[in-house]
Design a protein that fits this description.
Helix content: 10-25%
Order of helices and strands: EEEEHEE
Shape: globular
Number of strands: 6
Radius of gyration: 13 Å
Strand content: 35-45%
Number of helices: 1
Largest sheet: 4 strands, antiparallel
Strand order of the largest sheet: 1-2-3-4
């Protein structure tokens, strides 16, 4: 999944910058309109998602249990394209 800078994802995330890219997809810096802060948005190709759907769906739950810069991530957004 390739997202254009400045585009909107799911009527919620404004794509600001590409943070990294690899074999499974890309990670973008995005502004979340609901949380009113910058977040990381992970774009993964449909082929990869179909092959690793369960792992991909568990990832946000694992991240919510971890802290980021001393904050608990109870509001970590999760969405699928």
């Amino acid at each position: 999944m390739v997202l254009a800078l400045g585009s909107m994802l799911e009527n919620r995330y404004h794509i600001k910058a590409l943070l990294g890219q690899g074999g499974m997809g890309a990670v973008y810096c995005a502004y979340d309109d609901r949380l009113h802060k910058l977040v990381a948005a992970k774009g993964v190709s449909r082929e990869v998602i179909e092959g690793t759907r369960k792992q991909f769906e568990r990832e946000p739950l694992m991240l919510m249990r971890q802290s980021f810069r001393g904050e608990q991530n109870d509001e970590l957004p999760y969405g699928r394209d």
